[in-house]
Design brief:
- The chain is an alpha+beta fold and about 150 residues long.
- It has one domain.
- Helices cover about 15% and strands about 20% of the residues.
- Strand 3 and strand 4 form a beta hairpin.
- The chain is globular, with a radius of gyration of 15 Å.
Length: about 150
């Protein structure tokens, strides 16, 4: 996975989300967060579903590592590559086009850091909302069973 356009110098949690509609949230999903209009992770879950695998750099990749901030990639751009084993539910969601990769962490106020401008995260009140809000999103596409036609 190649990622660009994120806040530099901070970790960005990333997950495969499953059991939702298999889409990324639109602006219509935004709600009032501490007096500002933005999309929180739970706002987005209506579209992309629950956290499946956590795309950590090392160790556990289960949903239990969803907020393992010390084990996620850091930086404004990075390439992530890791082989993980997924359960049948995740594999089924990928094959059905209903698995979504979400990278979290936004610079809502342009300050160059994660601030508390949107209040605390609904996932962990010790973290600011900006650290867990969705920044990038894309639906996974499964490889065709007979391989890709490369022409």
């Amino acid at each position: 996975m190649t990622v660009k356009g994120l806040l530099a110098g901070v970790p960005h949690a990333a997950h495969i989300h499953v059991d939702g509609m298999g889409t990324c949230p639109t602006a219509a999903a935004a709600t009032n967060l501490n007096g500002h209009i933005a999309i929180s992770t739970t706002d987005g879950m209506k579209s992309y579903g629950m956290i499946g695998p956590s795309l950590t750099t090392s160790g556990d990749t289960s949903p239990a590592s969803a907020l393992a901030v010390t084990r996620f990639p850091v930086g404004s751009s990075y390439q992530y590559s890791r082989t993980i084993t997924v359960n049948n539910d995740v594999a089924s969601n990928i094959r059905a086009g209903k698995a979504v990769i979400v990278v979290h962490g936004i610079d809502y106020d342009g300050s160059g850091k994660f601030t508390n401008v949107l209040g605390p995260s609904e996932l962990d009140p010790k973290l600011p909302q900006v650290a867990t809000a969705p920044a990038l999103c894309g639906t996974l596409k499964a490889m065709p069973s007979k391989g890709a036609a490369t022409g």
